[in-house]
Amino acid sequence: MKKIKWLVASLFIFLTGCNLRVLDPKSETARDQSFLIQFSFALMMIVFAIVIILFVWFLSKYRENDQNKDYIPADEKGSPWLEITWTVIPFILLAILAVPTVSITFEQSAQVESTPANAVQIEVTGQQFSWTFSYQNGVETVNNLRLPVDRPVEFTLRSEDIIHSFWIPKLGGKKDLIPGKTRRMIVTPEETGTYQGKCAEFCGREHTKMRFTTTVMEESEYEQWLQEMKEKIE
Ligand SMILES: [Cu+2]
Question: Which residues form the Cytochrome oxidase subunit II copper A binding domain (predicted)?
Answer without folding.
Answer: 117-228
